[in-house]
Amino acid sequence: MIGEAPKHYVKVLAIVAGTGVLLSLFWQIPYVFTAIGFSAWAFLGHLITADDDARGGWSNPDGSLPFPWAELAIKGVVLAGLCGVAAFFPGVRAFGGAS
Fold it and tell me: CA within 20 to 30 Å of 83's CA: 29, 35, 42, 52, which one?
């Protein structure tokens, strides 16, 4: 039996992937660049709002929650990985977008 959390993550992943495919086709750019755009948006958004998660910030006024370094690191690794794939494997840039 699958729990609720994995189902939620599968739904979110499906929505993001579907949106990425549609945007790639609409703007006629390869899928990997759309994925890099989504990843950069998540990473930079986390950096911009990092002070909200810090002790005394908007999301953590009493300082009881630890700063989400792991989430930020994962987002950075995913972004770096996607950029590395686009840079070192040029064949990936041929998938999606303009035919």
Answer: 52
